[in-house]
Amino acid sequence: MKKLSFLALLIISVLAFSRPLQAQVRLNVNVNIGNQPVWGPVGYDYAQYYYFPDIDVYYDIPRRQYVYLNGNSWRFAPTLPTRYHFDVYRGYKVVINESQPWLHPDVYRGRYARYKGPGWYGKQDIIRDSRDSKYYVVKGHPMYGKGNNGNGNGNGNGWKNDDDRGRGNGNGNGNRGRGNGNGNGHGRGHD
Length: 191
Prior knowledge:
Layout: H1 2-18, E1 49-52, E2 57-60, E3 65-70, E4 73-77, E5 94-96, H2 105-111, E6 154-157, E7 167-171, H3 174-177, E8 180-184
Antiparallel strand pairs: 1-2, 1-5, 2-3, 3-4, 6-7, 7-8
């Protein structure tokens, strides 16, 4: 009987551990706010490309290059040619997180044709004008590098003596909105 029980337990163990686990959890978190240009639209923690419906041009954010059609081929360049009279701050931008969208231009032209034209010009909030502190890491933002590094005013406990003002904990806005402050405490007296 012991041999039979052992054999059954061995078979069950082999079957249980030989099959791959069915449930797997995968978590990818992509954030590239600091790499996006100041003229990019707000609301996206991650953006790989921008598409400009008005001029049928893409912007590759990681490479910091425009992708535009020149004859029958797509060109990559850090600036747009002068034939494009386009204000990237006011023109509408569509975020695309699909690989090489310019290889399927008809898909994007059709999908985003409604954002083409003067009705959308200047209607999109951009990173430069945002007061959300998560965008302060974007070079060129008015608040870039202007955090207070966690310094602030604090409240603390002190002695009744006016000379001893106490120690305080400060609140600051440094380090992406998180900081340990050094403050001057205003104490409450002890008898």
